[in-house]
Structures are given as C-alpha cells and as structure tokens.
Amino acid sequence: MRMVDLIIKKRDGHELSDEEIKFWIDGYVKGEIPDYQSSAMNMAIFFRGMTKREIATLTDYMEHSGEVIDLSEIEGIKVDKHSTGGVGDKTSLVLGPMVAAVGGKVAKMSGRGLGHTGGTLDKLESIPGLIIAKSKEQMVEQVNRIGLAIVGQTSTLVPADKKLYALRDVTGTVESIPLIAASVMSKKLASGTDVILLDVTVGEGAFMKNMDQARELAKTMVGIGKSLNRDTVAVLSDMSEPLGFAVGNSLEVKEAIDSLHGKGPEDLMELCYTSGSIMLVQAKVCKSIEEARKKLHEVIENGEAFEKFCLMVEAQGGDVSYIRHPEKFEISKNIVEIRSERDGYIKEINALEIGISAMKLGAGRETLEDVIDMSAGIVLAKKVGAKVTRGDLLCTVYTNKTPEEYLPVLDEIRQAYAYSDKEVKELPVIREIIREA
Ligand code: URA
C-alpha cells in the first residue's frame, strides 16, 4: 500500500477501507508516514468528508494507537466532559469541582489551546506549582480520594491524536467534522471514562460556525459513544461571544474562582448547571435533572465546590494560597482600557477576533514553540445586549508585549464590536441538547 494512493483516493471522493485507515494511522504514529502526507490526507478529508463507517474506524484506530486506560479501580461511575473549544471557556474549572462536590467521580483528561481557543491545561498551569502530568495510578488514587482530577493526556494515550492535532492546527484542517469527532471521541474512549458529556460550541468563536454543523458533529460523536456502550450526551452551547468575561489563562482561573464563590457570569453558570445536572444523572448520583440542579446550587452556596477545587489544586502540587488569595496572581505590565466610541447597544463581540487578539497579546500560541504569557488576555466589561454610551468601558487589555506589538491589536479588538441603535436580545447560552445520534 502507498500513502500517496490513499490520499488520491480520498481527494477524489472515495471511501477508504478499514485497512487503508489503519495503514495511515499506524504509519503516521510510527513515523513511517511523514507530516506532509498526513497533512494532505487531512485536507482531503476536510473537503471530501468521511462516511459513518470511516469515522468509526478512524476513531477506533486512533483510540488504540497507544495505551487505553482502565479506570475500573475508581469506585463508582466515572464522568468526563469535553468541549470542542471556545474563547473564555473555563467551564471545566468550575464544572469539575461542582460535580465532584455533589458526589460525581470526575476523571478528566484535558487538552491545550488549539488555534484561537484556549486549553484547560494551559489555564491550570497558570497556578504556580500545579502539575498536569499524572500517572494512571496517581489519577485513580486522586479521584478515589477527592472525586476529581484534571490532568493532561499522557504521551502514551492516543499518540495519533497528539500528532494529528498539532498538525491540523498549523495546516488549516481543524474545522472538519470527521476529524474533530475522531479526535474527541478517541481521547474520551481511551481515557477510560464511563459516561461522556460533550459541550459542542457553536458560533464565530467555535470551530462549528452554525447550528447545522454543530448538530451534525454532536450527533456523530453521540453515535460513536453509544455504539460503544458509553452514555454520551451533547450540549450545544453558544460561542458567538466569549463565555463569561475573562479571556486568557490566569485571568480565567480568577474568574473560575469567583464563579466557585457564587459570583460567576450568568452564561458560564448556566452552562455549568445544565451540563453538571446531565452529568450527575448520567453518573446515577442524582435521579432527576431537577434534583441535580438543586444540589449544584447548594455546593456553590455552601462553598463545597470551591473547597473541592482547592483540594484538587493541592493534590496536583499547586499553591493553594493563589486560589484563596487570587490577588497573588501576577498582573501584566501593560493594562489598557478600551472604551466605546459611540452610544447604542452591543450587538456583537466577535469571539474569534477576541480569541485571536488574546493570542497576539501573549495568551496563546501562534506557533508550537511559543511560550504562553499566563497573565495576558482581555477582560470584557460588558456583554452582547448591554447599553453603552460613548466613553463607557468595553474591556481591559492585559499584556507584557511592547507598544509596537500590542497597539495594532487594540484596533482589532475595537473592530470585534458591532453596535445597534435598537435594543439587542442576547442568545441563550444553551442552544440544544442532543441525546440521540
Ligand atoms: N477538540 C479536540 O479534542 N479535538 C479537535 O479536533 C477539536 C477540538
């Protein structure tokens, strides 16, 4: 078999056989197939798509490209949640402790930032000392003891996705339904969780720009999960504007801490209550969505969710004093306020533009080698729907870049805003819940 023939076959719109998909994935992981041929295959899949069978096969070979973790030593039903990525998406940092505080066993493997979207691991690493590399035994021990671990994918878990994910990020092949579905589901299946809650983001700041695409991705992933007997539910959530107010690593950790203290932004909290109650019912910790929602409110109000987060940070070697006193987080040298240049209602805060701007300010990686500036980012002062008068604060920018570097970015941030003279209704954060393929 020759890789070039498989690329041509997919390029011309034909279906790949199981053996051909295996040849590609095995060869790529072993280093026998070079990046340029995998890039070409990704691009062919991007344009031609894949059948259900091809996606299931790709997911299966990716899942088994490395270690498949057995978490059966964790008592109870293990739950995991995965978002397809967004801007300001600190959901896992709030939702994980909330679900664990009610009694769920959250064994979560997270990823790093991809494209303009942030990654939970990068956010967690803004907490001094915190380690995201844990062995399976350490993860099992931690989840059995405190009910919660958010760790990085080990190098032995789904190596095919590690390589493909990085390659897609720099070759314009991220926004492909088959490739996203196989990437997400191979990781979730290999990480040994029993039930899966998928947060499929939709809108300008997400990889899926409209509801039709998001629904198709959600159904594809729910179908893969169900076919392998994992209870899988997808929540479609809005990502046309950033989630919450903060965008950038330590800025988002601080917003997560506020949220765990009951002072979270409405959209973020609604997403956490909706997703968390589904997860608790999936895990059979609660009998109904209503009971689960009530309990999630209780653990926010009585501080148990916050304490759970502190326990997790401590268990992973992080300095808890930063969580108890978030004012200790380092603040960027340059703090710039952006103000409204007109009266009206905010009609749009383009999440993609805000995500790219935050990356340029230092909060994300433009190339694989870039080192993230944990303090950099943007904090919105107002969300879509807000009434503004000329001179009102729109957002605050944090960066350690030089003025030559950051001044052009300020203009890009201004351009991310659109206004209306008429009142604007905000889209609800929960757009749809998908339970069937
Ligand atoms: N998240 C993933 O894990 N994989 C993708 O391809 C996109 C988002």
Q: Summed up, what is this model?
A:
The chain is α/β, with parallel strands linked by helices. It has helices spanning 3-11, 18-30, 35-48, 52-63, 91-102, 120-124, 136-146, 159-169, 177-190, 211-227, 249-260, 266-282, 289-301, 304-315, 321-324, 351-363, 403-415; strands at residues 78-83, 105-110, 148-152, 195-202, 231-238, 246-247, 334-339, 344-349, 377-380, 387-388, 393-399, 417-420, 430-434. Strands 3-2-1-4-5-13 form a six-stranded mixed sheet, with helices on both faces.
Q: Could you please describe the fold and organization of this structure?
A:
The chain is an alpha/beta fold and 437 residues long. It folds into three domains: 3-49, Transferase, Pyrimidine Nucleoside Phosphorylase, Chain C (Transferase, Pyrimidine Nucleoside Phosphorylase, Chain A, domain 3), CATH 1.20.970.10; 78-325, Pyrimidine Nucleoside Phosphorylase, Chain A, domain 2 (3-Layer(aba) Sandwich), CATH 3.40.1030; 330-420, Alpha-Beta Complex (Aldehyde Oxidoreductase, domain 3), CATH 3.90.1170. It is built from 17 helices and 13 strands. The strands form three sheets. Strands 3-2-1-4-5-13 form a six-stranded mixed sheet, with helices on both faces. The protein has a four-stranded antiparallel sheet with strand order 6-9-11-7, with helices on both faces. The radius of gyration is 21 Å and the shape is globular. It starts with a helix and ends with a strand.
